[in-house]
Design brief:
Chain lengths: 425, 92
């Protein structure tokens, strides 16, 4: 196993580029199964979730090769299976996009219930509702989701809850269905727009992404395409918050500032000086920040994925801050770790009350999920002493070489192979 | 002989004309960039105008930054103005 050893009290300074969005890439790659032509996808991050996805596509019969600078070439003409290897699909939640993609390609799919970070209940009932409306039979047997359709037909689908995963999965399944599909109460995240851009460039007819009504006119076949994945707003936000927390000065390049509006607004509210350009954001060195109330919501609200990093920043703001988690109810597993560092945080239902302004003291920490793990790294960088973070496999799932990139900005983080955990059991 | 109207203070709407030219330039550059990258420019521009999400616009040739030079309502105004003027001219 590996751990990160972080030397505290380091200010970040310099410039960094943002990679392609993980949450778009994990859907665009399965979408390439909808065509038998070759597709070239650029700006694909080197993260574990993507490596697992590539392995799955190869196991299904596709030819996949990495190109330089984040490029990926996928040739799905040889796909001959609708059963992704269970041991791989089980590892990460985004494997569920193979449901919509393989249903659209093969008319059937058998896949384990999705795994991924434990953020509380994350049912896939809205996905199932969508597939069923399109004419598929869905059965859950022994932990497997079995979906089969003799013919997919367009339908009018109202999502009971706003779900990024369900919206994309229905888009994938409907792209080659017969007739018109309408998704009402659709999610509006930029990653959905990116998947639609990819599908449309292949010849699909998807309109309305980025709004709450998406219309898909099915087409009989899709062709080849070259597509570049949009920048990762969550990675950009992580670097912005890390820069602010360390009172550093960091230029973050290759971003779409519009996607970070809620983060920019909240950082400005707490007193972090920022400069915004057409495709860059610069966090300027500031003093200690002010407390604030943060409420997570689906896009364009404050992203739940940045709740944990933002909480670390708020531990440094003298006064009382309240963080309300409205998207995933179990997303406070980082709180116990921050408390080990001396942070004063009280949990009340879906809210965390933070008495900020206290110096964090280093401690051995364990990441329990991806974004919470990144938050612990930021906490380590601002704390006094040397912090150990274990469970970094969660971080590697979504951030490409996070510690190396922080190190290039002046952090002192070492990745060490160890045989024993600092935690008992 | 110079007309009487030139003896009075006049208001020139120069800014609007600049904006019109800017809108044309923005739309032209973005259209070309989208086309060069293999996207359907009309689909992508409709998506952007409806949602405001710059993800609809490719970063190729700086198009994603160029589209943000003007507000969406200014782009829509130019599109409608040119279209309607042409249509109304056809009716005459």
């Amino acid at each position: 196993m590996e751990r990160l050893v972080i030397k505290g009290k380091q200010r970040l300074k310099g410039a960094t580029r943002v990679n392609g969005a993980k949450n778009a890439a994990v859907a665009v790659i399965p979408a390439s199964l909808l065509t038998s032509s070759q597709v070239k996808i650029e700006n694909i991050p080197h993260i574990t979730d993507i490596e697992w996805l590539i392995e799955i596509l190869k196991a299904l019969g596709a030819k996949v090769s990495r190109l330089g600078k984040g490029g990926l070439l996928v040739d799905s003409s040889g796909v001959n299976s609708f059963t992704p290897p269970h041991e791989l699909a089980d590892k990460f939640r985004a494997s569920y996009y193979l449901m919509g993609a393989l249903l659209g390609r093969c008319g059937q799919v058998e896949i384990p219930m999705p795994g991924g970070c434990n953020l509380g209940p994350r049912p896939i009932d809205q996905h199932i509702k969508g597939f069923t409306a399109l004419g598929a039979n869905v059965n859950l047997e022994h932990g497997l989701v079995k979906i089969k359709a003799s013919k997919l037909k367009g339908a009018h689908i109202y999502l009971d809850v706003v779900s990024v995963g369900a919206t994309i999965n229905i888009m994938l399944a409907a792209a080659r269905a017969e007739g018109k599909t309408v998704i009402e109460n659709a999610a509006k995240e930029p990653e959905i727009v990116d998947v639609a851009n990819f599908l449309n460039a292949m010849g699909a007819r998807v309109v309305g992404t980025g709004t709450d009504i998406i219309k898909i006119r099915g087409v009989p076949s899709l062709g080849g395409v070259e597509h570049s994945v949009i920048p990762d707003r969550i990675e950009a936000g992580t670097f912005m918050i890390a820069a602010a927390a360390t009172q550093g000065e960091v230029l973050i390049e290759d971003v779409i500032p519009k996607h970070l509006d809620p983060v920019i607004a909240k950082l400005k509210e707490v007193g972090v000086p920022l400069e915004i350009g057409p495709d860059w954001i610069k966090v300027l060195a500031g003093n200690s920040c002010s407390p604030a109330d943060v409420k997570t919501f689906p896009y364009p609200g404050f992203p739940t994925d940045l709740q944990a990093p933002m909480m670390v920043l708020l531990t440094q703001a003298p006064g009382t801050s309240i963080v309300s988690e409205n998207v995933f109810e179990g997303r406070f597993r980082h709180v116990a770790e921050l408390k080990k560092m001396g942070a004063r945080i009280k949990l009340e239902g879906r809210a965390a009350i933070i008495e900020g302004g206290r110096e964090l003291i280093s401690a051995p920490l364990k990441a329990a999920d991806l974004r919470g793990g990144a938050a612990l790294v930021i906490a380590g960088m601002i704390s006094r002493g040397e912090t150990i973070v274990e469970g970094i496999e969660h971080i590697d799932r979504g951030y490409e070489h996070l510690e190396e990139r922080f190190n290039r900005l002046g952090a002192k983080i070492a990745r060490k192979k160890v045989t024993e955990s600092v935690f008992p059991g | 002989m110079v007309g009487d109207q030139f003896n009075h203070t006049m208001r020139f709407n120069v800014r609007t004309e600049e904006e019109v030219n800017e809108a044309r330039l923005v739309l032209k550059n973005v259209y070309t960039a989208l086309q060069e990258k293999g996207y359907n420019p009309i689909n992508q521009l409709v998506g952007y105008l409806l949602s405001g999400d710059p993800a609809f616009i490719t970063s190729h040739n700086n198009a994603r930054s160029i589209i943000r030079r003007l507000e969406r309502d200014e782009l829509l105004e130019e599109l409608l103005r040119v279209y309607l003027e042409k249509e109304l001219q056809g009716d005459r």
